[in-house]
Every structure is written in structure tokens, then in C-alpha cells.
Design goal:
The chain is α/β, with parallel strands linked by helices and 188 residues long. Helices cover 37% and strands 16% of the residues. The protein contains seven helices and five strands, in the order H-E-H-E-H-E-H-H-H-H-E-E. A five-stranded mixed sheet has the order 2-1-3-4-5, with helices on both faces. The chain is globular and about 50 Å long. Keywords: Metal-binding, Zinc.
């Protein structure tokens, strides 16, 4: 059985048995917080539990490495929507130790892309069009510096209310221990 079939079979029972009822909430975060964190599988349940958040408390936006690549991209737009449309009053950027983005080597990733069927001509066309694929795919060397970069991009965004604190933290994906990199309450 394909994974999609398994998911749909489970989902049918989930809905039929009304197991969704324990998760019912509104679209507005009860704690008025939006979190940008990494898509790492270890953080799926660990991060909210380590911060004492439950379903409905916060908005969570995920990107590889909790990195914001562009000030006018989808990640930044999601943070602004959370603040202005969904009543979030604080932003937390949370990276983690042992992040896969710290090991990304763009040239190796491009080789994997080609092995999966993307033609070199497509890659060349993107580069000839001005896309710096190596820069776009590059990870980071230091998680604290990466979190600081993302915090600064958000904090200095021209559309963000300067009264919204933007915090930067790093979590240990094994223990859940949080370390503060930037306390947004001190930098407003």
C-alpha cells in the first residue's frame, strides 16, 4: 500500500471517530506568538513541548535552518501576516544545534539535483539568468550567527511594527534546552 493510501485510510477513521475534537481551536494564536523554526523532524513535537505550548497557542512557520533568504519572500510575508492579520505580538526565530543546513555544500546538492533528473541546461539557464544557485543553496557555519541574521532581517523590515519584539534562540534538538541569542525585549 502506498503511503498516501495509508494516510487517507487513517484519516477516514480519524474523522469518523471525531478524534479532531481535542485539537479544535481558532486561527488566532492564544499566546499571540509566531515562531520561525527549522523543518527538522526532531523539532516537530519537541519544540512546542520544550516551550510549554499546546495546539492553538502559537503560529509556527518552518524553513530549512529557520533562515530567511529574502526580505520580501514567503517566510517574511508569513511573519507579517501572523502579526497584522492573526494578532501575534511577538516573533521568535529558533534555530537548532546539529542543523542539516550547517552541512549543505551547494555543489554537492546540485549534483544530487542532476542525479534526480534535472538537466544541466536548466541549471545553466538559471545561472545565465542571474540566479546565484551556489549562494541560494548555501547553508551556514554558525547557528547563532544564522539566527542573528534572520532576527536582524525581521527586526529591520520596513513593514514590521518596531514595537514587536523579535527574539532569537537556539534549541538543542535532543534535550530541548533553549539558549537565548537575542532577547527582543532588550533590542526594541
Amino acid at each position: 500500500m502506498a503511503l498516501l493510501d495509508e494516510i487517507l485510510e487513517y484519516n477516514e477513521e480519524f474523522v469518523k471517530e471525531k478524534r479532531y475534537e481535542e485539537y479544535m481551536t481558532t486561527k488566532f494564536p492564544d499566546k499571540k506568538v509566531v515562531i520561525l523554526t527549522c523543518m527538522d523532524t526532531r523539532l516537530f513535537e519537541m519544540l512546542p513541548k520544550a516551550m510549554n505550548f499546546k495546539n492553538g497557542d502559537v503560529k509556527i512557520v518552518k524553513s530549512a535552518g529557520a533562515v530567511i533568504n529574502h526580505p520580501f519572500g514567503g517566510i517574511m510575508r508569513s511573519l507579517l501576516v501572523a502579526v497584522y492579520e492573526l494578532n501575534a505580538d511577538e516573533i521568535y526565530i529558533i534555530g537548532h544545534h546539529d542543523c542539516g543546513m550547517s552541512n549543505i555544500k551547494p555543489h554537492e546538492m546540485l549534483e544530487k539535483i542532476k542525479k534526480r533528473g534535472v538537466d544541466q541546461k536548466t541549471i545553466d539557464m538559471m545561472e545565465y539568468s542571474g540566479v546565484d544557485l551556489e549562494g541560494w543553496l548555501r547553508g551556514f557555519d554558525n547557528v547563532e550567527e544564522s539566527v542573528t541574521h534572520s532576527v536582524n532581517m525581521v527586526r529591520h523590515h520596513p513593514l514590521l511594527d518596531p514595537n514587536v519584539p523579535v527574539h532569537g534562540l537556539v534549541i538543542d534538538p535532543t534535550t530541548g534546552k533553549l539558549d537565548v541569542v537575542i532577547n527582543g525585549n532588550e533590542n526594541r
